[in-house]
């Protein structure tokens, strides 16, 4: 093998390692951000004063209602992280979303904040995630009262 070929092969291997290192770094950053967010939500739900401060004056929620919505947010965030990291396929995510939407508080959460999650979606993965959850939320037309309450 000529020296030029060997150099090209080494350059290719080096480039591949740089790409892989970048992907691992992004994954570590996602994991750390989710960990910090989950710790914050745990602190929020365990401290009534912080929970009370976090309720927007426009939202007519009791502390227990807000706590239930924060718990819904926690699980949805975990699923979003797993989907982003490739630990859930779109099909598996849809199964999870369908199961979650069987519970009133998750439907209430999505009715209130699903639009915001769609607005803040940064890339195709976020958009796909919110589309799956919105699709599964729309299966429950009997929740018009939840939708109207959230719009108020």
TrEMBL record:
It holds the Pfam family DUF6082. It comes from the Bacteria. InterPro entries: DUF6082. This is DUF6082 family protein.
């Amino acid at each position: 093998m000529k020296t030029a070929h060997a150099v090209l092969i080494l350059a290719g291997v080096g480039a591949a390692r740089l790409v892989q290192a970048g992907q691992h770094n992004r994954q570590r950053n996602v994991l750390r951000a989710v960990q910090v967010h989950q710790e914050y939500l745990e602190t929020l739900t365990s401290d009534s004063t912080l929970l009370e401060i976090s309720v927007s004056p426009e939202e007519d929620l009791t502390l227990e209602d807000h706590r239930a919505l924060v718990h819904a947010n926690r699980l949805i965030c975990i699923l979003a992280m797993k989907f982003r990291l490739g630990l859930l396929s779109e099909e598996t995510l849809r199964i999870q979303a369908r199961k979650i939407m069987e519970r009133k508080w998750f439907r209430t959460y999505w009715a209130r904040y699903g639009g915001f999650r769609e607005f803040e979606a940064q890339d195709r993965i976020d958009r796909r995630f919110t589309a799956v959850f919105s699709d599964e939320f729309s299966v429950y037309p009997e929740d018009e009262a939840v939708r109207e309450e959230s719009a108020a």
